Design the sequence.
């Protein structure tokens, strides 16, 4: 038996490497939003696609998601911090209104998408269409054995 | 790629850990009572956030929840995922015991109250 120890730091490095390689990958059609807020990563999982947006400072009620055909649109607004008194020394956090659309491949069932928001990250799960999922075909014996 | 969302990596010499570490975006302001700092820490579990204040230097660290990425293969990406780390020298005299920290929707809000002797004071001038 071979023992494999789980090392979270190696797991992080592996994930960072995989994400970096995906920086050059095109996705869908017309998505040229690199640099726009909020940034998004798209993953493939066992059930379909997972889109993960970094939306720090936004509550679920500040976000609106719409799907139309293969397109998913996320919109919302992040209010800037305006101190009532005193001075502002540094402003790096993004604020303003936004709207971003992602077009998913044919096999994505956007109508069945579900979303959750945790720690300032919005995760949208888009399952793969039933008919495009891999299927097991049983082979039956025919004739006499 | 535009500069807007490119996370700044903390240089390798600063970290003894494997994996890239990023500098979180911050807003910083000042009021008569003290200094406030708001830090964007998307994807960081509040239990992993560490805030320190030592010799006038405020340090903030947070770790991303890696289990959220199990069995996922990236197909398109605009940002990298990593732990966050940032340090600031605070010029004002701070009362370290009075530092307040709370985290909500991936934003860490800190308030560093000014030390009693450093608070602005009005001296009444009396006619003699």
Sequence:
């Amino acid at each position: 038996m071979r023992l494999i120890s789980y090392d979270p730091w190696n797991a992080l490095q592996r994930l960072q490497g995989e994400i970096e390689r995906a920086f050059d990958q095109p996705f869908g059609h017309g998505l040229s939003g690199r640099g726009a807020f909020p940034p998004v990563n798209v993953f493939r999982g066992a059930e379909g696609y997972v889109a993960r947006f970094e939306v720090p400072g936004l509550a679920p009620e500040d976000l609106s998601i719409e799907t139309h055909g293969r397109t998913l649109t996320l919109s919302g607004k992040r209010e800037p911090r305006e101190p009532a008194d005193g001075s502002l020394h540094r402003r790096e956090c993004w604020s303003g209104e936004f709207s971003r659309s992602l077009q998913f491949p044919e096999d994505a069932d956007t109508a069945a998408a579900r979303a959750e928001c945790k720690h300032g990250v919005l995760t949208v799960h888009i399952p793969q269409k039933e008919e495009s999922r891999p299927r097991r075909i049983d082979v039956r014996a025919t004739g006499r054995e | 790629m535009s500069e807007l969302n490119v996370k700044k990596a903390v240089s390798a010499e600063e970290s003894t850990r494997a994996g890239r570490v990023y500098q979180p975006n911050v807003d910083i302001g000042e009021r008569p009572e003290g200094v406030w700092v708001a830090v964007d820490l998307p994807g960081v579990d509040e239990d992993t956030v560490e805030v320190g204040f030592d010799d006038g230097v405020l340090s903030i660290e947070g770790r991303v929840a890696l289990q959220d990425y199990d069995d996922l293969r990236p197909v398109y990406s605009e940002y990298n995922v990593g732990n966050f780390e940032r340090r600031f020298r605070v010029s004002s005299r701070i009362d370290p015991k009075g530092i307040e920290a709370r985290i909500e929707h991936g934003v860490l809000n800190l308030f560093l109250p000014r030390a009693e002797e450093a608070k602005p004071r009005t001296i009444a001038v009396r006619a003699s």
About this structure: Chain B touches chain A through 48 residues (CB under 8 Å). Chain B is about 0% helix and 40% strand. Residues 29 and 84 of chain B are 21 Å apart (CA to CA).
